[in-house]
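Quick illustration, no need to memorize.
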Amino acid sequence: MEEDEDQYADLEAQIEAVESDIDLLNQRMQVPAREQVAVAGAVVTIDRSGKLRIERNLLKPADKARFAHAEKAAARAAMGGPRIHSAALVRRLTAHRTLALQAELVQQPMTAAIALTHRLVLDTFYSGSAWKRAALQIEVHATALKDQGADLEGCQAAATLAAHRKSLEERLPDDPDALLSWLAKQSGGDLLAILAYCVAVTVDGVQSGEGPSPLDPLAEAVQLDMRRWWQAKADTYFASVSKARILEVVREAVSPEAASALALMKKAPLSKAAEARVATTGWLPSLLRTEAAS
């Protein structure tokens, strides 16, 4: 009987060790720490729709093993004294706590909004492993748009976003540990303003085809009018389309007579002439139009 108990104790110890390793593996599947990012690489592919996809923060096997060893050592050191509960029991108890917290948040919408903002701000404004200070399992992937064209970096929308970010960065606490309590003290309007920025930079409507987009309902919801943000110019549009298309645009936006007057021009001067003709018309290509811009 004693031999059976010893074997059972050995098996339980082995199970706990495996469970601890699984926990570490699950942690490493999340956002990497700053030191991992420094040696990580990326793989660039093109999916079936022709859209560019970038998988970042990929580690070489040797680096992955080195970080795994360091994290395991740190986890064991952090445990300090002898274990009181088995790993399985700890998971079960904390699952109960998690479920109870979810039930509380359902009844406290403002606290839930604070928690969401907290998680998004940690990802958006703080670097390294600041995300570990949040309880919510939400990841922020800011959409990279500058690579789509040289005119994007200096456009009005980019300047507007940059101004919002600068204003928010000046107000946020330097210490990410102080962020949650700081957010809880903000007014509802200020909280929503911070949340709005963090949500906005995750929007991704870039596509290769000219059909419907998942962006369409959101564009309608905010009454997006691209005439406020974009204008057909030689470098932003006309240089990238054919002469026939340029004349078609002038015909639609101005008049058939205006298009006919430009028909014999070469591409470069035609692009400049078309820019001047449509400048005050508010013309937009169909894929930029919404009901607000019709």
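The chain has twelve helices and two strands.
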